[in-house]
Amino acid sequence: MTMNRQMQRAATLSLAALASLTTALTPAFAQMTEVGPGEGALSIVAWAGYVERGETDKAFDWVTGFEQKTGCMVSVKTANTSDEMVALMNEGGFDLVTASGDASLRLVAGGKVQEINPALVPSWSTIDPRLQDAPWHTVDGKHYGVPYMWGPNVLMYNTNVFKEAPTSWNVVFEKMDLPDGKTNEGRVQAYDGPIHIADAAQYLMFHKPELGITSPYELNEDQYKAALDLLRVQRTLTSRYWHDAFIQIDDFKNEGVVASGSWPFQVGLLKADNQPVASTIPQEGATGWADTTMLHVDSEHPNCAYMWFEHQLSSNLQADLSVWFGAVPSVPAACTDGRGMQTAEGCTANGLDDFEKIRFWKTPVANCSQGEGACVPYYRWVSDYIGVIGGR
Amino acid sequence: MTSPAILPERGMGDRISAAFWRRPRLLLILLLTPPVLWLGIVYLGSLAALLLQSFYSIDEFSGVVKQEFTLKTYAELFRAQNLDIILRTLLMAILVTLTSAVIAFPIAYFAARFAKGRWKAVFYLGVMLPLWSSYLVKVYAWKLILAREGILTWIADHVGGGPLLARALDEQWFGGSSLSTSPLGTFIVFVYIWMPYMILPMQAALERVPVSMLEASSDLGASRAQTFRTVVFPLALPGIIAGSIFTFSLTLGDYIIPQIIGNSARFIGLAVYQFQGTAGNVPLAAAFAMVPILIMLVYLWIAKRMGAFDAL
Amino acid sequence: MTAAVQFQSVTRHFGPIRAVDGVDLTIAEGAFFAMLGPSGSGKTTCLRLISGFEKPTGGTILIHGQDVSDVPPNRRNVNTVFQDYALFPHMSVRDNVAYGLMVKGVDKRARLDKAEELLSLVKLPSYGDRKPGQLSGGQRQRVALARALINEPRVLLLDEPLGALDLKLREAMQDELKALQKRLGITFVFVTHDQHEALSMADSLAVFNDGKIAQIGTPEDIYARPQTRFVADFVGSSNVLPPALTKALGGPAEWASLRPEVVRLAPSGPKGTVTAVRYLGSGSRVVLRMGDTEIAAFVPAGEAVPEQGTEAAISFAPSALHLMGQV
Predict the structure, then answer these.
(1) Could you tell me which residues are beta bridge partners of residue A77?
(2) Which residues of C touch B218 (CB under 8 A)?
(3) Which of B203, B301, C208, C210 has the fewest CB atoms within 10 Å, counting from its CB?
(4) Are residues B152 and B195 in the same domain?
(5) CB-based contact A83 B265, cutoff 8 Å
(6) Does B39 share its domain with B157?
(7) What is the ipTM, given to two decimal places?
(8) What transmembrane ranges does the database entry give (chain A) (predicted)?
(9) pLDDT of residue C1 exceeding 60
(10) CB A21 within 8 A of CB A10
(11) Residues on chain C touching B234 (C-beta within 8 angstroms)
């Protein structure tokens, strides 16, 4: 498919453009073997708050130093959902993407990202060993990215309503009265992305073991149906689904929302605004994201990209970003070695010790551990979740 | 001393106007070529590309578009959840249009009949002012106005309308936990945002109805209601249709308002936005985008059958 | 015989403007009554007061003896032919004519039959299916007339009905309107600024000036015996003489009017300079300047016409001077 498109493109190009054509084709065939001089620019598709240059808060800047050192000027395109990231990479024109596990394998399968060469990233060995060969970026032993950051999808709650942290996700899944005596109807939110089906599946894994769910990302028809049924209950409780972090923040302030799955990012911002919120990982565990920086197959700035790979592992980025976003560094040393603001306690608070409790986002596929074609694939998750939100 | 029968040419300008005078079509061609090119290539071209895309499909896992002709994508439109989106949007567009027409009419009528001089300026300013500020700012402002802890709820509570509002929000079809998270809120904001597009053409149409025609009707014995039904309304109909084409098609295509106000249920515009932008499913987005176009064609056809364009 | 329309000290003010200023007026039943005056004189407002489109600021209006001050237009048995005809563009000619019956709830069959009848009356029998936009000005005028007559009003109001027609058509329509009025026997009240039209059609007329009636009477009265300079000026191509000139010409020191056709050129008499000569067919009209005033005289065909710029003398019978008082 990729070849085909490039052939088409090649046919339309004149001889004079042959030089640029060959550079466009080369990365598709093999990984890089050496890092040359920087090309002067680097464009990154990233989650909001992932690539900060001190403009939101002076203290948080892990871009300026990189630009000064390498001369690669960084531009960022913010994406709100994994689907959006995949779409942007399919469009092309970007070098890197901070893809979560539910996007990374799709990018690999679509031929939109290239294999990377760990030997060209000197700090590769400092990566948390649990992440080095993680299945969401490693296919057939080949690495398609460099781990960036990971963290849990926490349960954010209003501390005026919950004097003690809720111990179960049931507050957002089942109709019930909250500790303040009032119903949870219209007072909870859920994530506006199909991957949220996995949260429901994880809840069922704990409460309905008879379904036999082993991974919330590998659901057979029955398990899938049970998850959707649970989400239909949730629809009746949910006033609005969130996909934009700032709209969720506003809803916690002005809409009387008191509990929702969320990211540490929103928790941090609301706390900083003196709002009565806190977060927890309930007994069922949590889904989480583990993001990988991946290199576009047609990247025009591969040298800058490799310099960024090294930068993201070795600089203040890991420590400061984990503080800023409420996440956990992919390089454990960043928690303790003082390269940034992060501390051992901070890492623990953000979930470093919960790694085992967290089931990381990954793209559901038909051929899963339950057998060939046994699981419900992602495209059905997409259309069915739209249906659930539409009240069907 | 007599003056000459032919005046001397005063330069380039005279020569050009003489050329146009001799060949009037030349001017027409010169004037029409750029817009026709624009329409033909940019607009119709992109429309054709859209149509073409809608006959492709997407590889469901990798999200890469397969460029092979198929009707599969159109069949997907008829999946229950997608049909829901279409019907929901259609219903919203109809309600928004009817409500806009009902609210806009007295305003337009007043402006056309009674507002003179300074009041006319005040009217135009009042109607256009909301159009000057950013659309997004207005929608976010409405999110705050309609919020559970927003000013509208506060007012309702203080004038004793609280129970009424609560009852409306309990309604299963359009209710929610607050106006800002209910379809009712989406509806209110749609009506507000598109209102000027209904008022202005309506006012223009009403202004073209001569007063003498209303007087003639009343003179011949018609009551005000009869005059409205048999004279004012038919003569204002082209304006109402023009306005409704705006409100109807804008509602069909909008993707910002339902994203910020409402209960997250998808509308066509939002579905197009999501499918092409966040989900990368351009073929399905294209198929969805064809829906409003088809609906508008049917709409215009019905309007024509109703005689909306007879008075043009 | 009762009056069809009666105005008792009627005024109508628009802000500071007194459009109608204390008008007393009686229009006899069955009359062909004209309201004549320059634009802004109040004649149209008077018509609109009768139809009900304007409400009087003061005074009383009676139609057939009944006070209509509080009656809206749709309940007055009075119909109007509008200056711009005001035909409904979205309806066929037949539906336009039948409109008055439709809003009364007359059934379709009966009202369309009646509409056909009226279309025949105005000599447009086969035009029912057309739209007003497909008719000529004269035809539209007839449709407007038919539409206004379908309710069989006792008073028909016509607002400058012939203003938009060309000369020949206008003259034909004048005769037709007159004949129609005779035949129907209803009161016609029509507004015009054209003195010839008013004089040739009306049984009686009122000349309006500045919101007031300057004179009311038969065409003969108005033309031959204008009571004020304004009427003399506006109605005829009459000569208006200031008191000094009247005296110089052998009358008392009063304003006077003098119709051109009685003034002839003579070998001797009061002299003036010829400033304009116009050939009329039946003779020529010669204008002489005498002091500050211009006097028109009539030279019958066959007599010598003086050159422009020469001097000429005039003569007339002293009884032809119509005196209008000191002011």
Answers:
(1) A45
(2) 52-53, 72-74
(3) B301
(4) yes
(5) no
(6) no
(7) 0.82
(8) none
(9) no
(10) yes
(11) 90
- Whats the size of chain C, residue-wise? 327
Element (H, E) at C62: strand C58-63
- Mean pLDDT along residues A179-204: 93
Q: What CATH number is given for C253-325 in this structure?
A: 2.40.50.140
Confirm or reject contact between B228 and chain C (CB < 8 A). no
Across the interface, whether the CB atoms of C90 and B219 are under 8 A apart is answered: no
User: Is B172 part of a structural domain of the chain?
Assistant: yes
From CA A10, how far away is CA A6, in angstroms rounded? 6
Nearest by CB to A378, which of B61, B263, B271?
A: B61
More confidently predicted of B3 and A113 = A113
Same domain, B144 and B195: yes
Residue A1 is predicted with a pLDDT of 32
pLDDT of residue A338: 86
The tally of domains found in chain B comes to: 2
pLDDT value at A332 more than 50: yes
For residue A383, the chain B residues in CB contact (below 8 A) are: 76, 79, 81-82
Residues of C in contact with B113 (CB under 8 A): none
Q: How far is A92 from chain B (nearest CA, A)?
A: 12
Q: Report residue C67's pLDDT band, with 50, 70 and 90 as the boundaries.
A: very high
Question: Which residues 35-64 of C have a C-beta within 8 angstroms of B?
Answer: 51-53
Pick B231's closest partner by Cβ from C72, C83, C88.
Answer: C88
Q: Residue A199 is which amino acid?
A: D
Residue C323 C-beta-side C-alpha neighbours within 13 Å:
14
Domain residue limits at B27:
14-45
Q: What is the pLDDT of residue A74?
A: 95
With a cut of 70, say whether residue C269 has pLDDT above it.
yes
Residues B40 and B178 in one domain: no
At residue A8, does pLDDT exceed 70? no
pLDDT given at position A28: 42
Interfacial B residues in 95-124 facing A (CB < 8 Å)? none
Assigned token pair, B295 = 């609906």
Q: How far is CA C267 from CA C260, C286, C288, in A?
A: 18, 15, 15
Q: Measured between alpha carbons, how far is residue B54 from residues B77, B276, C184 in Å?
A: 11, 11, 72
Segments of chain C assigned to CATH 2.40.50.140 = 253-325
Provide CATH 3.40.50.300 ranges for chain C.
Answer: 3-233
Residues B83 and B137 in one domain: yes
C-alpha torsion A175→A214→A331→A338, nearest 10: 40
Contact call for residues C313 and C267 (beta carbons, < 8 A):
yes
Stated length of chain A: 392
Task: Check pLDDT > 70 for residue C298.
Answer: yes
Contact A109 B274 (CB under 8 A): no
Neighboring chain B residues of C80 at a CB cutoff of 8 Å? 215-216, 219
| Digit-coded pLDDT (tens) for B75-115 | 989 988 899 999 999 999 999 999 999 999 999 998 888 88
Question: A3 pLDDT exceeds 90?
Answer: no
- Report the distance separating Cα C263 and Cα C311, nearest Å: 16
- Cross-chain CB nearest to C51 (options B219, B235, B310): B219
For testing contact with chain B, the best of C99, C104, C151, C159 (most B CBs within 10 A): C99
Query: Which of B213, B222, B234 minimises the CB distance to C86?
Result: B213
pLDDT over threshold 80, residue A63: yes
- CA torsion through residues B240, B246, B251, B256, sign: negative
Domain C3-233, CATH homologous superfamily name and number: P-loop containing nucleotide triphosphate hydrolases (3.40.50.300)
Most confident of A32-41, A138-147, C1-10: A138-147
Write out pLDDT tens, residues B108-167: 998 888 888 888 888 888 888 888 888 888 998 998 899 888 888 888 888 888 888 888
B80 and chain A: CB distance < 8 Å anywhere?
A: yes
At position C262, the amino acid (one-letter code) is: V
pLDDT of residue B15: 87
- Tokens matching residue C114: 């009646």
